[in-house]
Sequence to fold (302 residues):
Amino acid sequence: MKADLGDLNAFLAVARAGGFRDGARASGGSASGLSEAVRRLEAQLGVRLLNRTTRSVVPTEAGKGLLERLHPALTEVEAALDAVNSFRDRPVGSLRLNVPVSAARLVLPGIVAPFLTVYPEIRLEVIAEESFVDVLAAGCDAGIRYDERLEQDMIAVPIGPRVQRFATAASPAYLDRRGRPQHPRDLLDHACLRGRFPSGTITPWEFEREGEAVRVDPTGPLTVGIGGAVDLAVDAAIAGLGIISLFEDWLRPHLDSGALEPVLEPWWQRFSGPFLYYPGRRLVPAPLRAFVDFIKASADQP
Fold:
């Protein structure tokens, strides 16, 4: 029995995304086109592959079995077709990256424009989120994460600054009013602006100085979702609402302008920079290979 490759790809896109609209966004098609392709495939196979409700689309047992076998097979087909790219002067195709918001804001701006200038025929899509996802299951070619969050069996390539710091800061007006902390534990008596990960976790603030490590869990009037709402906390800190802890590079423009004043700077904790990671399979898609080579070459330049 022969099935159309496009119909199989449509089923894969819908099943991975959990819906026709999300599948259309991920694949660049239309929801109606994906729906028709899946119906055509189900009619040809004679079994229902997806259970559809008004709230969700979930694979049936038959659909799960097909999905498990189909994904690696289509990945190999895509890799084989992509090998033709090696005969072109410039690689062609799409590249999808899954990255944390901090990387989209602090790491990629200096890379994306130069890369797409060199490779104008590559279409780059960046998905910025804080959830730790399986890049393949999410339909992405690669991701950016910090070392403690890297998936196993992945190739990791350094990208962006190799050393970063978390900074704590507040407006001068707030510090004039409430006093300037001299030790991290002093933060327990201050209004602190916190961030919550999508998992619901609010991580303690960590500090280190001359071998002494301190973790504190302060409270305050504002908690924001880590990601798109972080700038709200920055604005609140500038307005004098409390003390914020964030990437130093994120706060640097406000520190330089004087809108924010460093707090406990000798205690700011250093940590290693992020990595681009991708599956260690034999054939790497040409757009991803071009991106990897580009960031490696950029790292070698002064």
User: Anything to note?
Assistant: Residues 111 and 117 are 10 Å apart (CA to CA). The chain has a mean pLDDT of 86. The chain is about 40% helix and 25% strand. The chain has three domains: 5-83, 90-158+273-300, 163-272.
